[in-house]
Each structure stands twice: as C-alpha cells, then as structure tokens.
C-alpha cells in the first residue's frame, strides 16, 4: 500500500513540476495540473481578460498553456525598453501555428534569424524603389481612392455595408505593389480571396491552445480546421500570380514586387550559380495643414486597437529583466492594448477624443502622440506603417471631400466592439454616403 501511495505522490509531483509555473517567471493565475491555465477565458474575450490580469499582477505576468510559458509585457516604457534597446534579443518569432502551418517559418512576419533579416532588407529596399514611404506613391493611392468614390456614388445615398468595398480598395493598393495590377470590385476570384482572408483572421486566435501547440489544430474542438482550406486557397492564388509573372518576366521592365523578387533570384543564380471642399484632391503636401485629420486618424487607430496582443516574440536565450526570467523560446506578447488603453497616458481611454493629440498651439503633436504604437515598435514593428498611414489619410480626406457620412440609424451608432482573432475586426454596419 505504501508503495502505491509513494508512486501516486511521485506522479503528482512530476505532473505539477511539468505543468506548474517555473521558478523566476512573472506571477500569474494558479495553474491546474496538466492543463496549466487553459480555460480561464474565452479566446474571443482575451483583450478584456488581459486588462484584468494586468490590474491584478502588474505589467509582467505569465500564463501556462500545458507546460509552455506565455509571458505578457505591458506598459509603454517596458515595451519600448525591451523591443528597442534589447531589440536583437527579442527579434525572433516563436514556433506557433502561423509560423509553422501558414508561413512554414518563411515570410516577413513569421520568419526568424538571418533569413528574416535578409528578406526584410530586400523587401524594404525594393518597396522604396516603388515609392514606398515616399510621396510619389500617393498618385497610385489617389487613383484607387477615386475608384472607390465612384463605387460609393452608385448607392445614391442608400444604406449599404461599406466593409467590402473598403477592403477591396485598400487591398488593391497593396496588390498593385505586389502583383502590378488592381482588381475590379465585381471580380469573383478576388471577392473570394477577401472572404478567405477574413475567415483566416477570424479563426486563428492567439489565445487558443492550438495557436501555442500547432499539432492540436487537427482537432475540430479548437476550430482551426476551418483554416486549412483557406490557407490552401490563398497559397494557390499567390502561386497563380507568381506563375503569370514568370511567363511574362522581362528583366528590363520590372513592374512590381514579384518581378523584383524574380530578378533578385535570377541575379543570385547567376552570381552563385486644410479643407475638403473644392475640386483639388487632398494630397500629402497639404497634410501638415490638417492637424485635426491626423488627430482623428490616430484616435481611430487607438480605439480600433486592431492588434491588441501584438504578434508574439521569443528570445534567443534566457534573459532577465527587472528580476523576471524570460526563458529561451518562451512565447511573449508585448501588449499594444496595454498602451492604447492606458489611462495614465490617455485619460478616459474609452472616450473618442481626437483633441488629445492637439497641442496648445492647435498643432498635431504632444506626448500622447509619441506614445502611440499601433504598429508596434522596435525591429519587428510593421514595415507597412508608412503605406498604411498614407492610405488612411488619402482615403479619409477624399471620402469627406466627396460625401457627407451619415449612420443608417442616427439613434443606433455602430458598435465599437470587435471580433478578436489574429486581429480585432469591427462588426459590420451600414452607412449613408450623401454626395456633396
């Protein structure tokens, strides 16, 4: 009998040791045997749950997903310190569902190490040649904005769901850079691609155990099985575009990003082997004269909070910070939401208040502006930030120049709540666009 008791005790201790919180990690909720902290909250409610955890445990806390630690870092100063000052240490991506199943450890977002550095350098250099981050790109954006305005006019002030046209139009700017072409709003194939992307961003949730352990994605209980056909269809779309480029490739006429990539491959093979009225279109040249537009857009990004958990990071080796251990290969989320919703930085954070970004002289600026990190910060911050900011400005100003925007029902404004997957996606809503 005593032998049996001893075996049971040893097994319980072993289970606890394997699934409990390792010494040195930031504090967190009590772990359950084997499963750790799984089931503490619904993945769709992760943003609210993490705000609560921060109030309880402070800027550093950890959760155990089975035996794997996941560390959460909050606060502007902490995020800035670790991602900028110690940027090289935290520049890796962990092995999670997107990196292993979707990207297969490739691509700008999910690769790590020397391969990622090489790809990032090529991407930024190539995109700059096409005007990325420069005002010369605005003519391409304005052309797409005008197509969108013409599409809006077809509704003649009747309520409609604006999401689809907006997604197509914004995506067309990126497609023009990548593929050298835009897609018509009626294009069935591109329409399907947008639906697939929407499905993928909704299904893949950072807080699901299947995100942390990709092998679990095969079980339907985690809902990731819906992602597989989506990933396959997206890959087929990109491969089809790449094949079209190979067939028409001319190294003396580099049309877009894919052509530039093909040229690089060929070379390496060879080498080795103020107002919105009037007729003039708003441009980037007058942006500094419209501080309220900048303030409005920044407040939209703050409350929109589209990537509240950020993309996950990991460390190259064990790292200690403020007395806490960040183990090698542990998953870490640098919580963008902790900054965007911090009342110490943004008083009344749930209130929409663009004036918070206007200084005493009526100009766009101030400390709150400097602490806005919707695109993250450090070495792994979003490389598309310059283009995104240009699009936001040109789309909004042209829209307001052409239309008065009204809700379908003035007594029932669109909800600010979203659906959290990889991104925090807004609920659909209808608007009226009344031609000026």
TrEMBL record:
The keyword Metal-binding applies. Its cofactor is heme. InterPro entries: Cyt_P450, Cyt_P450_CS, Cyt_P450_E_grp-I, Cyt_P450_sf, Cytochrome_P450_fam2. One of its GO terms (cellular component) is endoplasmic reticulum membrane. Residues 1-20 form the signal peptide. PANTHER family: CYTOCHROME P450 306A1 (PTHR24300:SF403), CYTOCHROME P450 508A4-RELATED (PTHR24300). This is Uncharacterized protein. It comes from Magallana gigas.
């Amino acid at each position: 009998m005593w032998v049996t008791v001893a075996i049971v005790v040893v097994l319980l201790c072993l289970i606890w040791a394997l699934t409990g919180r390792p010494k040195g990690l930031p504090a967190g909720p009590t772990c359950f045997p084997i499963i750790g902290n799984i089931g503490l909250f619904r993945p769709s409610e992760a943003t609210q749950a993490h705000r609560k955890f921060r109030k309880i445990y402070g800027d550093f806390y950890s959760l155990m997903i089975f035996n794997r630690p996941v560390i959460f870092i909050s606060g502007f100063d902490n995020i800035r310190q670790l991602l900028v000052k110690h940027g090289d240490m935290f520049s890796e991506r962990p092995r999670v569902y997107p990196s292993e199943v979707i990207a297969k450890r490739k691509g700008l977002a999910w690769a790590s190490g020397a391969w990622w550095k090489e790809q990032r350098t090529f991407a930024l250099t190539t995109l700059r040649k096409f005007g990325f981050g420069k005002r010369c790109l605005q003519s391409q954006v304005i052309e797409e904005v005008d197509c969108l305005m013409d599409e809006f006019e077809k509704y003649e002030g009747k309520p409609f769901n604006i999401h689809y046209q907006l997604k197509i139009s914004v995506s067309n700017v990126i497609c023009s850079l990548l593929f050298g072409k835009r897609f018509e709003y009626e294009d069935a194939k591109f329409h399907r691609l947008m639906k697939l992307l929407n499905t993928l961003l909704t299904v893949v949730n950072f807080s699901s155990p299947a995100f942390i352990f990709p092998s679990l994605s095969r079980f339907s209980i985690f809902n990731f099985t819906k992602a597989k056909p989506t990933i396959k269809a997206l890959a087929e779309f990109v491969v089809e575009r790449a094949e079209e480029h190979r067939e028409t490739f001319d190294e003396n006429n580099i049309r877009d990003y894919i052509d530039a990539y093909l040229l690089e491959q060929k070379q390496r093979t060879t080498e080795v082997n103020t107002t919105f009225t009037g007729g003039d279109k708003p441009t980037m040249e007058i942006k500094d004269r419209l501080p309220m537009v900048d303030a409005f857009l920044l407040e939209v990004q703050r409350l929109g909070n589209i990537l509240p958990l950020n993309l996950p990071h990991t460390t190259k080796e064990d790292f200690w910070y403020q007395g806490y251990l960040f183990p090698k290969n542990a998953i870490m989320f640098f919580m963008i939401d902790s900054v965007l919703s911090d009342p110490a930085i943004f008083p009344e954070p749930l209130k929409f208040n663009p004036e918070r970004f206007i200084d005493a002289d009526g100009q766009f600026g101030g400390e709150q502006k400097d602490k806005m990190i919707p695109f993250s910060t450090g070495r792994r911050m979003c490389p598309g930030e310059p283009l995104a900011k240009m699009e936001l400005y040109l789309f909004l100003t042209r829209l307001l120049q052409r239309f008065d925007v009204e809700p379908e029902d003035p007594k029932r404004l669109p909800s600010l709540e979203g659906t959290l997957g990889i991104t925090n996606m807004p609920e659909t809503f209808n608007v009226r666009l009344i031609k000026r």
